Amino acid sequence: MNTILPISIRYRIKHINALFHKEKPEFSEKMLKTRNRILYLDSPNYPNIGDQALAIAMRKFMADFFPEYTSFEVLENNLYKYISWLKKHITDNDIICLNGGGNMGSYYKSYEAARRLIIKEFRNNIIIIFPQTIDYENNIYGTLEKKRSKKIYSKASNLIICAREEKSYENMKALYNKNTVLLCPDIVLYLDYRNLNVSERSTIGVCLRNDIEGILPKKNIDKMLNNIGEHINITTTPIVDKEIDDNNRHQMFENTILEFSKCKLIITDRLHGMIFSFITNTPCIALPNSNGKIKGVYKWIANKGSVLFVENIDDVYEKMISMTTVNNENISELFKNLDANIRSKIKEQKK
């Protein structure tokens, strides 16, 4: 049934169901007493370290540039049950931030549904979609979903949509031509762990996908692993038995960062595997994935450190022999355009 019903129908069913389970968030009293407010809605509560890193980096960016605001977070599993309360108490002066990543479009259906709901219900607010990759299926279903998103997004005059690579930027500009669309690096590149005190980088780390975005043939992977010899496998999707929120995501993220920083080389086809390598000064060979986001984001850090994008997995061994460690550049200056656009929206909102 889920593959037949469009996103809009499915999230309406979920929304209607939530109306019978109205609740208020645990921060409700504090929020009502606070004036300058930032709400992080639909934050990830699942153990994907890349998505948790996006949430951490987004909050750090906003805290650094807008310290006068107080933050409130609604996890994705609570969005629908809190939405009625939020509609009553969020004012037009509140800023809403939505996690970046690679889930805009029709491939990750529940994320687009939640994003539409938020934009539709709070169309007068400043809403920031942090740097994303957009990808719609090339079929009737993808075309329909694209039209539905455009209809909802176009009515939100204060919506800022950030693309993290040029392909998404061009697609977003064409599709969301009534909104502010910016080209920015993945927000995790705002973080800096280059000065971690690691005594020795002693091993090669391998961090590869096993989902719909993975395109490397198994026989080629096996050949590569045989060539490189001893290595460790690093996962960015650990199995945990508890909900992830702002109280524990930092520890989980920092454990992963420490794993990366102990390696003398990382080989990965995960976007945030490449980014974690860059922000920890770890040499990295990045390989392609299905939607081109790794190659696209790589352009931000090409020639700025010891990360190399390799199209052909069979070339990995040859390239790794010549890899050297250099100090990667801090590229946080590239986010000033986002800061300027948010401030411009705030100024307009106060007129």
Number of DSSP helical runs: 13
In round numbers, the mean pLDDT is 92
State the CATH topology of the largest domain.
Answer: Rossmann fold
- Helix residue percentage: 40-55%
The description of the largest β-sheet is:
7 strands, parallel
Number of domains: 2
CATH architecture designation of the largest domain: 3-Layer(aba) Sandwich
Order of helices and strands: HHEHEHEEHEHEHEEHEHEHEHEHH
CATH C-level class of the largest domain is: Alpha Beta
Radius of gyration: 21 Å
Q: Total number of β-strand segments?
A: 12
Q: In oligomeric terms, what are we looking at?
A: single chain
Strand content: 15-25%
N-end to C-end Cα span:
47 Å
**Low-pLDDT residue intervals, each spanning 5 or more residues:** none
Task: Tell me what you see in this structure.
Keywords: Transferase. The chain is of the alpha/beta class and 351 residues long. It is built from 13 helices and 12 strands. Helix 1 (7-19) crosses helix 5 (109-121).
Outline of this structure?
The chain has helices spanning 7-19, 28-32, 49-65, 79-89, 109-121, 140-153, 166-175, 218-228, 249-261, 271-279, 293-301, 316-321, 336-349; strands at 37-43, 70-75, 95-98, 101-105, 126-135, 159-163, 180-183, 203-207, 232-233, 263-268, 284-286, 307-309. It has 351 residues and is of the alpha/beta class.
Topology (elements, then pairings):
Blueprint: H1 7-19, H2 28-32, E1 37-43, H3 49-65, E2 70-75, H4 79-89, E3 95-98, E4 101-105, H5 109-121, E5 126-135, H6 140-153, E6 159-163, H7 166-175, E7 180-183, E8 203-207, H8 218-228, E9 232-233, H9 249-261, E10 263-268, H10 271-279, E11 284-286, H11 293-301, E12 307-309, H12 316-321, H13 336-349
Parallel strand pairs: 1-2, 1-3, 3-5, 4-5, 5-6, 6-7, 8-9, 8-10, 10-11, 11-12
